[in-house]
Design goal:
Pfam families: Glyco_transf_9 (PF01075). By secondary structure, the chain is an alpha/beta fold. It contains 13 helices and 14 strands. Helix 6 links the parallel strand 5 and strand 6. Helix 3 runs parallel beside helix 7, helix 8 packs across helix 10 and helix 10 packs across helix 11.
């Protein structure tokens, strides 16, 4: 058994080493290409007067990263009201979240298989996009898709590894929130356009999603109006961001003490067992989950997709940060706050949720 464990550790170490070597080699290649044909410095210029078709590329499956697009997409829609804005993403489950945003035309999903991928590239080129945007500074997939789109204007972040030739480029400020960086890309690279900017995440579930969410709500909490506020929580997160089950049980105990009139509702992934002895619900469809989250008074979660989805749905969120920086990944929404550090307790997080709940009740929102 000890030998097997040792072998597993060695295998993990080799995989990590290979991954680092690949990343280093790719970075060296990017830097070399940038010297000859890329965009190492910012380029600020007006958009072409006839910019009517825009493609935003974000080929990443993480829910939070897709939601970080929403302030930028809303800024584009409000500032270019005659333009049609399409988006290219990787996960079809996220498609309804973007389709309901104002000004969004078509949400393309990257298919599997070489033949289907070639077909998508051909369809994108037939759209004759006036502008293609890579809203990140570190995705080779995004850059490749922007290049293959055939758009006559290209926007992205300048760097010494930006091998794509850009017509509009901004310097990347890593100190900013990830969502704010995407908005800053627009304002810092485009001249002669007064952008109407947005600084919070947003989703707008349709009537179908609202109806489905209502059914889940009744299943979890029973028919009729709930007595007192409903405080939601999500106990899962990836890697070092996750908090142990015992921590969450302590948090629940503290919440019952601080907000005795409130009902606790655990949001759990489909197929996962509840963490605590409270009401719970599992929802697979992301737009339905957004609609259900919008019914909560407060939501508490570690840095995760559901944390950002709740903020986008308009819920005051208490984000818990042990392994990531709230400066870059905090929940962006009205009434949202963060608890950060390596050793904060369930009681501290519960007090933060109680303060947010009290503020909401005092404002008459809850």
């Amino acid at each position: 058994m000890a030998q097997d464990s040792h072998s597993a550790v060695n295998a993990h170490g080799w995989r990590a080493l290979v991954k680092r070597l690949r990343r280093a080699n790719r970075e060296r290649l990017n830097r070399w290409l940038t010297r000859f044909m890329g965009t190492a410095r910012p380029v600020r210029a007006p958009l072409a007067a006839d910019t009517r078709r825009v493609l935003v590329v974000r080929l990443n499956k993480r829910l939070g990263n897709i939601l970080f697009l929403t302030p930028m997409l809303r800024t584009l829609a409000a500032s270019l009201p005659t333009a049609s804005i399409d988006v290219l993403i990787r996960d079809p489950r996220q498609k309804p979240l973007l389709e309901s945003l104002p000004g969004i035309g078509r949400v393309w999903v990257q298919p599997r298989g070489l033949g289907a991928l070639i077909g998508l590239i051909r369809r994108l080129r037939r759209e004759r996009y006036d502008l293609a945007i890579d809203p990140t500074g570190n995705s080779s997939s995004n850059r490749t898709a922007v290049a293959l789109s055939g758009a006559r204007q290209r926007m992205g972040f300048a760097s010494n590894s930006q091998w794509l030739r850009l017509t509009h480029a901004a310097g990347r400020a890593n100190s900013r929130h990830q969502a704010e960086q995407a908005v800053a890309l627009l304002t810092d690279s485009v001249d002669e356009l007064d952008f109407k900017t947005f600084d919070t995440l947003a989703v707008f579930p349709d009537n179908r999603a609202q109806t489905a969410a209502r059914a889940h709500w009744v299943e979890a909490l029973g028919p009729g109006p709930t007595r007192g506020p409903v405080i939601g929580f999500f106990t899962r997160a990836t890697g070092r961001k996750a908090l142990p089950a015992a921590w969450w049980r302590d948090w629940c105990e503290q919440m019952h003490h601080l907000a005795p009139a409130a009902t606790l509702l655990e949001i759990r992934p489909p197929g996962a067992e509840p963490t605590a002895d409270t009401a719970s619900v599992a929802v697979a469809e992301l737009d339905v989950l957004a609609a259900l989250l919008s019914r909560l008074s407060v939501f508490t979660a570690a840095d995760s997709g559901p944390m950002h989805l709740a903020a986008a749905a308009g819920v005051p969120v208490v984000g818990l940060f042990r392994a990531t920086r709230p400066e870059a990944y905090a929940p962006l929404g009205q009434g949202c706050t963060s608890v950060a550090g390596e050793t904060f307790t369930g009681a501290e997080a519960a007090r933060a949720a109680a303060r947010v709940l009290a503020a909401e009740q005092a404002s008459g929102v809850a």
